[in-house]
Amino acid sequence: MKKAYALVGTGGRAEFFYGAIAKEFKDMCELVAFCDTNQTRMDYANHLLEETYDHFPVRTYMANAFEEMVDTEKPDVIIVTSIDRTHHLYIIRALELGCDVITEKPMTIDEEKCQDILDTIDKTGNKVRVAFNYRYAPHNTKIRELIANGVLGKVYSVNFEWALDTQHGADYFRRWHRDKRNSGGLLVHKSTHHFDLVNFWLGTHPDTVYAAGGLRFYGKENAESRGITSFYQRAYGSEYAKEDPFALHLEDNPHLKSMYLDAEKEDGYQRDQSVFGDGISIEDTLGVLVTYKNKALLNYSLHAYLPWEGYIVTFNGSKGRMEVRVREQSYVNAGGEKQEEGRIEEKSITILPMFGTSYQVEVDEVEGGHGGGDPALLNNLFNPDIHDEWNRAASHIDGAMSILTGIAGNKSLQTGQAVKVNSLVDFNRKEEQ
Ligand SMILES: NC(=O)c1ccc[n+]([C@@H]2O[C@H](COP(=O)([O-])OP(=O)(O)OC[C@H]3O[C@@H](n4cnc5c(N)ncnc54)[C@H](O)[C@@H]3O)[C@@H](O)[C@H]2O)c1
Questions:
Q1: Protein residues whose CB sits closer than 6 Å to any atom of ligand 1
Q2: 333 pLDDT band (50/70/90 cuts)?
């Protein structure tokens, strides 16, 4: 029997899922409906279904008809790819209506919403999976394998530096993510991937988090302090934007135009705001110190305006050290070739034994976005016969543990204090009512 899927949030990321269901996994899966607050974007998704995937258009439901959609279309699984602050609404309602859920990261953006999701899972027994594609990239799985096989002995500490470049990093400052109420800021929206990798690599959970940082590069005040005097609100129709290397020109890209510019008449969602505009409430420069249940220490940083994209991570253990460097292709969601998203341009894993000669660990190249992580994730999500030696399917616990590091970090940014992760949610709470 095929499983039926309905998808909520038909923006840039959605095609990754509905395209796979309509094509590679069509013998196992059935796409039954789209749901969104924007009819134009749903219609465009249906256009892509027909044009690109040779699939018939599916029925569309406005967000306020979500329950009607579940009632009528009877999906087994709801895929949530709407903006972050709305994830919990659909996850919770879907679970209550008897569906399982696949949600994009971050599972949600604050501890109250996280607790509500955990309580609903307890109450309904239905399942939530979080689409952590980075785990599946072969080099990231290899790191897990090397650590699990004891190559480094006991891992005492991790230094993890994530670089977002002036194209991809800037994109979080052009649209809804720039308002912390929508995304939880980059510590939640973006770092959830990175904190999940650390949990996955070390096989442990976070204990205490201290964070520092702020908005240092993007935003009007920062630009003014560097002597910039010409500003604009959005790129479309702006003369100033023509001179701004950070501007996104929606009208030059037919895909972006159809998905966003032509759709904004309905909801006023502007995809191309100036990264040097007012009203940005997220950070672009972050440092985080995390201690883990197994006593490991993480020293993490994120910058969103660097000349290259990727990460450097080093692990120090009782038997030696591992140094990893990964440079990724930069990408603007919905503005480039899907396969290019996170394509690996350079990677190396070096083991430095405490006594002995250092050596490189080779990892096979795999085709597909996020260094081959994307196709492996899709197979794991949609192929019922999959067996995964590394148990990479991320549950609601994984979803929670990764966002809680960022949520604790946000609290630490506000208070200047270290925050205990277990003060944020209760994983074993049985609701009293
Ligand atoms: N894992 C990854 O590599 C990856 C990459 C990109 C995006 N994402 C995630 O995918 C999600 C969507 O990101 P995107 O880049 O596609 O954003 P987007 O802005 O392109 O699309 C978001 C969609 O949500 C819709 N929406 C807004 N409010 C809604 C509501 N109340 N109910 C239903 N729909 C609503 C919008 O109309 C839009 O169609 C985010 O959670 C993001 O974190 C993950």
A1: 8-13, 36-38, 41, 63, 81-84, 86, 104-105, 131, 133, 189, 333-334
A2: low
